[in-house]
Amino acid sequence: MTSYILGTGSAVPANIVTNKYFSTIVDTSDEWITDRTGISERKISNGDTTATLSIKAAIKAIKDSHISPEDIDLIIVATLTPDGKMPSTACKVQAATGAINAMCYDINAACTGFMYGLQTAHAFICSGLIKHALIIGAETLSKIIDWTDRGTCVLFGDGAGAAILGVSQSDKHGILCLEHGSDGSKGNVLTCENAPLINPFIQNNYTSPYVHMNGQEVFKFATRKIPEIIESLSTKSGIEIKDFNKILLHQANKRIIQFAAKRLHLSDDIFPVNLDKYGNTSAASVAILLDEVLHNGTVKPGDLIALAGFGGGLTWAGILMTL
Fold first, then answer.
1. Has domain 3-167 been given CATH number 3.40.47.10?
2. What is the pLDDT of residues 236-258, one digit of tens each?
3. Burial class of residue 1, CB neighbours in 10 A (0-12, 13-18, 19+)
C-alpha cells in the first residue's frame, strides 16, 4: 500500500513587497537582492495569520481532492510561526473546515516541515490506520524577522500550502520512496529563540526573538545535501535521475538550485522556481510550489517528480512520487 496526492491548495497574503521597498529601510538594492537570491518580491501579511492562511489553503485542497471534510482522518500543520502555543494550528483548521473526524497536531522542522508532514501522513496511510490526511505547511515569518538586518529581512515571505493524501490504488502510482535525516550538532547555524526563561529564580536571561542565520554555512549544507537526497531517492527506487520529470526543491536561493542542477548534471529546466514571487516561505515553500506546478501545466499525470527540503535543525527530507 502507498499514498497518493488527491489535491492541493495554497494561499498567500495580498500585500506584495518588492525589493525596492527594502532599499528604503536597509542598505541594499533591488539589483543586489535579485543577483544574490533570485527574489524579486514576496508576500507579507498585513492581517493574515498562520491559521487563516492555513485554513484558506486547506479549503482549496479539500475542494481540489473532491472529498468531504468528514473524510479526513488526520491534520498535520508544519510551522515554526504558530499564532500561539495552543490550541494548535491544526485544531484551528479542523474547526474552520468541519473535519470533525480528524486527529490534529502541529510539527516543527523549519523549512523541512511540510516534507516531514507528508512522510508522517504517508506512514499512517501505509499502516492502514487512516485513509485520508491533510498536510499543511504555513508560515508568517514576517513576525520573527529583524527588519533592520539586511542579511535576513530580504529573504523571507509569508504563505501556506496544503495537500490531501489518500490511499493509492497501485504501488506504482503515488509515493515510491523517502529520504530524511537531521543533524542537531549544526543547529546553531540557523536559529530563532523562543520566550526567555524568566521566573522568580532567574532574571535578565535575554534571548532574541528573531531569525539568525550563518548564510555561508547554510549554503554549504544545502548544496551538499540536495544532491545527496536526490541520489538516495534514485538508488532506493532503482530509477535513474535522468528519468525524473521534475525536481521540486525548497525555494531558498536561486544559487542553491543552480548549484544542485550542476552537481546532478541536469538542466535548470528540471527545477521549477517560484522564489522570485514568494521568497523563502519556510515550511510553506515546497507546498506552494507543488500546488503551483500541479495547476499550471508544469507537470502532468504519470510524471515522476522528486521533492526535496532542507532547513533549520538542521533537517532534510526527500520524496519520490508518480502523479
1. yes
2. 999 999 999 999 999 999 999 99
3. exposed
Q: d(Cα 189, Cα 212) in Å, to the nearest integer? A: 8
Distance CA 63, CA 69 (A): 9
At 305, the pLDDT band (50, 70, 90 cuts) reads: very high
Distance of alpha carbon 92 from alpha carbon 240, whole angstroms: 42
Q: What angle do CA 86, 91, 93 make, to 5 degrees?
A: 125
Task: Tell me if 67 sits within 8 A of 164, measured CB to CB.
Answer: yes
Q: What is the pTM of this model?
A: 0.94
> Where do the domains of the chain lie?
3-167, 175-322
Bridge partners for 198 per DSSP: none
Average pLDDT over residues 190-211: 73
| Cell reading at 83 | 499564532
The yes-or-no answer to whether 3-167 and 175-322 have a common fold is: yes
Residue range 175-322 in CATH 2.40.10.120: no
Phi, psi of 202 (to 5 degrees): -150, 140
Cell of 57: 489553503
What is the CB neighbour count within 10 angstroms for residue 194? 8
Whole-angstrom Cα distance, residue 135 to residue 116?
Answer: 10
**Catalytic positions, written as ranges:** 111, 250, 280
Note the Cα 191 to chain centre separation in Å: 17
Average pLDDT in the chain: 93
